[in-house]
Backbone:
């Protein structure tokens, strides 16, 4: 006899609103670290505050701390996975998955490092609408915001690829 179990969460997906993912890499001369940022536009049911609370709840349920600590995504059973294939990065985690196209310099950094600094922001970023370019200045302002950094989940994720 077999039984199936469905993962349940107290997170209401519609409170998260539109989720997006953005990839960039550090300066190749000094820090060629690839980054992947997941964020909400803050357009979910019940407004941006409810979306922030939903992200906090999600990461609490996953056992991944928010703040400046960097979770080790290579440990057994870690709930977040990253697949890089065909010029795309795909993040998979319980209840959510997202993907985005990645620039060649990001792929080069991934090839050199084999891991990515993944940030999931609790703070909404309504200016970074999917499909529209984000300037370096706008990106720097958001990812350099201390309040954003200290309330986000940070993980070093090993990169997986499809076997050929």
Residues:
């Amino acid at each position: 006899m077999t039984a199936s179990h469905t993962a349940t969460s107290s997170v209401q997906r519609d409170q998260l609103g539109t989720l997006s993912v953005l990839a960039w890499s550090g300066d190749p001369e000094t820090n060629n670290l690839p980054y992947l940022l997941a964020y909400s536009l803050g357009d979910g049911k019940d407004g941006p505050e409810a979306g922030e609370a939903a992200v906090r709840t999600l990461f609490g349920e996953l056992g991944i701390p928010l703040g400046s600590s960097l979770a080790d995504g290579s440990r057994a059973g870690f709930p977040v996975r990253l697949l890089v294939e065909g010029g795309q990065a795909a993040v998979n985690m319980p209840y959510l998955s997202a993907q985005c196209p990645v620039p060649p310099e990001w792929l080069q950094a991934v090839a050199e490092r084999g891991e990515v600094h993944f940030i999931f922001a609790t703070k909404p970023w309504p200016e970074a609408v999917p499909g529209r370019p984000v300037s370096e200045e706008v990106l720097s302002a958001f990812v350099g915001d201390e309040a954003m950094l200290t309330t986000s989940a940070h993980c070093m994720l090993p990169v997986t690829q499809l076997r050929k």
Remarks:
- The first helix runs from residue 13 to 16.
- Residues 13-160 form one domain.
- The mean pLDDT is 89.
- The CA atoms of residues 152 and 163 lie 32 Å apart.
